[in-house]
Design goal:
The complex is a heterodimer of chains A (240) and B (224). Chain A is built from 8 helices and 11 strands. By secondary structure, chain A is α/β, with parallel strands linked by helices. In chain A, helix 3 crosses helix 4 and helix 4 runs parallel beside helix 5. The chains are: A alpha/beta (240), B mainly alpha (224).
Chain lengths: 240, 224
């Protein structure tokens, strides 16, 4: 379990029809970000990762300021120490799985790079996929390689934007185990309330660009209890 | 058959193509990804040689490269001879004349790359140079090949710009297309026919290479 605040963010982005105004802290090593479609979840993750800049605000990761619009500070995405995996996986199609995992490890010597790539592929049970290119990987295999690639440079935080939406429960559970074993804190966008309820993690609820609630999932998601039970019931009937 | 002209034409096409790829890749990258207001202007200027009559372009270049402009005078001071009516002058003219043929396929190729891949490269710490070398160029290899083939064949067949800038100096500026013109002027139709056939063969061979590589790529994508 991580101690202290991992990430602190207070940002504003957009104008007109969509405005995102989010102020939150990550204190748990696994936080789920909930919200309906169009609430701004993906935008929030993209701002934290550095792919888009907030109009104003401040973001700090483990005491290190990444963005401060007052001082015009904005650390480049590749220097933030943040990994980001989306549903799309976005593996480089011309590279093998191991070359994809090695992509962010340019500063390592050959020996250390090889060792780190092997370690990451092993963590996600993907050693047998090392020499395959993405067009020869299934959806679940692609996600495992994408996660190995994102974690290889040892980020301080991993952002996940529904990367397991297309996977079955068993595959999701196996990947979640690997992620927990990595020890890297995770901020995870999901529509699946039952996941967070069962895992008993922290949750943030984002609606119409505003943080409506944050804290332990079972407290935060209490108003959504009916939906959770419905999702759990659906999952059981699918399993049956 | 004017072998000297053939050798000169091939040398001009190879040098022009190589230079164009080096110059056009960063320009195409900038056009494809820049949010600058100058983008439309740069795109327009880079496309201009496609629309200008070759003789007009050749005339302006002849004036620009000649001893009456500061650039032309500086070149003469630096090298001891004028750019016009030299092989180097032909290269400069060919590079400008074929510039759109290099830039446009590259811009199309770069713009077609999935932005999610570019974002992942940025998140993984890739510099612009590495993004270009390790992601964009391998993924757009067919666009690079298209640009190279178009520049090569366009340069092999160019006439107006070459005649205006280079004139007709055997061994220095007389290319195959100038050679055909000379042969026709001399009523040597059989020779002109042979020379023209060589140009046709070079162009067809280059295009067959391009389309066979494209088909190979499609087949790989289908069975991959």
């Amino acid at each position: 379990m991580v101690e202290g605040t991992i990430l602190r963010a207070d940002v504003r982005y957009g104008r007109g029809a969509f405005v995102l105004e989010a102020r939150f802290e990550l204190r748990s090593d696994w936080t789920v970000l909930f919200g309906p479609s169009g609430a701004g979840k993906t935008t929030l993750l993209r701002i934290v990762s550095g792919l888009i800049a907030p109009d104003r605000g401040r973001i700090s990761l483990e005491q290190r300021v990444l963005v401060d619009t007052d001082t015009r500070l904005s650390v480049a995405p590749g220097r933030r120490g943040i990994g980001f995996v989306t549903q799309q996986a976005a593996l480089f199609p011309h590279l093998t799985a191991q070359a994809n995992v090695a992509f962010g490890l340019q500063s390592l010597t050959d020996d250390r790079l090889e060792a780190r790539v092997g370690e990451m592929l092993q963590l996600f049970d993907a050693e047998s996929l090392a020499d395959r290119k993405p067009d020869r990987l299934s959806g679940g295999e692609k996600q495992r390689v994408a996660l190995a690639r994102a974690l290889a440079p040892q980020p301080a935080l991993l952002l996940l934007d529904e990367p397991f939406a297309a996977l079955d429960a068993a595959a999701r559970s196996a990947i979640a185990e690997s992620l927990r074993a990595s020890g890297v804190p995770v901020l995870y966008v999901s529509h699946d309330l039952a996941d967070a309820w069962q895992m008993n993690v922290d949750a943030i609820v984002l609606e119409a660009g505003r943080i409506e609630a944050q804290g332990p999932a079972r407290d935060v998601l209490a108003p959504y209890r009916e939906r959770v039970l419905e999702q759990l019931g659906m999952e059981r009937s699918v399993r049956a | 058959m004017d072998l000297q002209a053939l050798a000169l034409t091939l040398r001009l096409a190879v040098v022009t193509t190589a230079l164009l790829l080096v110059i056009a890749v960063p320009v195409a990258y900038w056009i494809a990804f820049s949010g600058s207001r100058l983008r439309a202007l740069v795109e327009a200027v880079s496309t201009l040689p496609l629309l200008l009559p070759p003789t007009v372009l050749g005339f302006y270049l002849l004036v620009l490269l000649g001893p009456r402009t500061p650039f032309g005078r500086a070149w003469i001071q630096l090298t001891g001879h004028p750019l016009a009516f030299s092989f180097t002058g032909l290269v400069v003219g060919s590079v400008i004349y074929s510039f759109p043929f290099a830039v446009q396929p590259l811009v199309a190729g770069f713009s077609g790359v999935d932005t999610a891949l570019l974002e992942q490269a940025r998140l993984l710490g890739a510099s612009r140079l590495r993004l270009l070398r390790a992601v964009l160029l391998p993924l757009t290899a067919r666009s690079v090949l298209t640009a190279a083939v178009l520049c090569f064949t366009h340069t092999v067949g160019e006439f107006g710009v070459v005649l205006m800038i280079g004139g007709d100096i055997p061994g220095a500026t007389r290319t195959l297309s100038i050679s055909i013109y000379d042969q026709v002027q001399d009523f040597a139709y059989t020779q002109a026919n042979r020379t023209a056939l060589v140009l046709v063969v070079i162009s067809v061979a280059a295009l067959v290479l391009l389309y066979s590589r494209r088909r190979h790529g499609l087949s790989e994508a289908r069975h991959g």
